[in-house]
Each structure stands twice: as C-alpha cells, then as structure tokens.
Amino acid sequence: MAADGPTIRFRNYQPKSDELQGLEVEKPSVPTIEEQVGTTDAVHKDATQEPLLNLAPKKVNWDLKRDLEQPMKKLRAMTDRAIIELIRKRVESEEGEEPSNKGKGADLAAAVDQQQRVDADQEDED
C-alpha cells in the first residue's frame, strides 16, 4: 500500500484478507444505561422520587370525553324517542292496512308508548 495516499480504516466491515486485518478500527465501548445512571435500587431508595416514577400520562382527550358525556346522554335519549316515534308511526300505518291484526298493533303501540314514558322519566331523574 502507498503511504502517501489516504488510509483505509474499517469500522463495520470485517475484512477477509490477511493484509487488510490490521486496518480494522476498534469498536468504542459504550456504557450501558445502568452504568450511566447507576443501579435501579438507588433510584427507588429515595421516597420523595417514588410518586414521580409511578405517574402515568393521561390520555389527551380525557377532558373532552368528560365534557361530552352529558350532551351525548341527552342526544341518546332524543334518538331513542325518535326511533320509538318512527316505530309507532309504522305500527299505526300497518294497523290501517291490515284490519285483521287490530289487537296486536294496538298492544305494540301501547308498549312503545309505555317505554317512551319510562325513558323520559329516567332522563328527568338524571
């Protein structure tokens, strides 16, 4: 090899030929995290630091969920009432078309009516 040219050094490559074996660069020793910080026992010995280690970050949307709970409860109740009203209208329209099932449709409409009153009472209690 020429001494006046650039010198080749291998950091990650392991040369196969014997003449290039001496050009390898020694890998630097990197201290582990435990060596840098010390043992974990030393971290846990301090009683004032223990609560800081147990803290878990809150989810970023926890306050949004809390604030939306009441409006969503009202919206769910309104949706249920609308569904019940649609069912009642369908039952009434079917009752008008099929006179043979008069008694059955009236019972279903009464049951839907009663369920709507129960839902309204529960909403008023909340």
From TrEMBL:
Basic and acidic residues biased stretches: 92-105
Protein name as catalogued: Coiled-coil domain-containing protein 12
Superkingdom to which the source organism belongs: Eukaryota
Organism of this sequence: Coccolithus braarudii
One of the Pfam families matching this protein, by short name: cwf18
Stretch list, region Disordered: 92-126
Listed GO CC annotations: post-mRNA release spliceosomal complex; U2-type spliceosomal complex
Lineage of the organism: Eukaryota, Haptista, Haptophyta, Prymnesiophyceae, Coccolithales
Biased composition (Low complexity): 106-117
InterPro entries: mRNA_splic_Cwf18-like
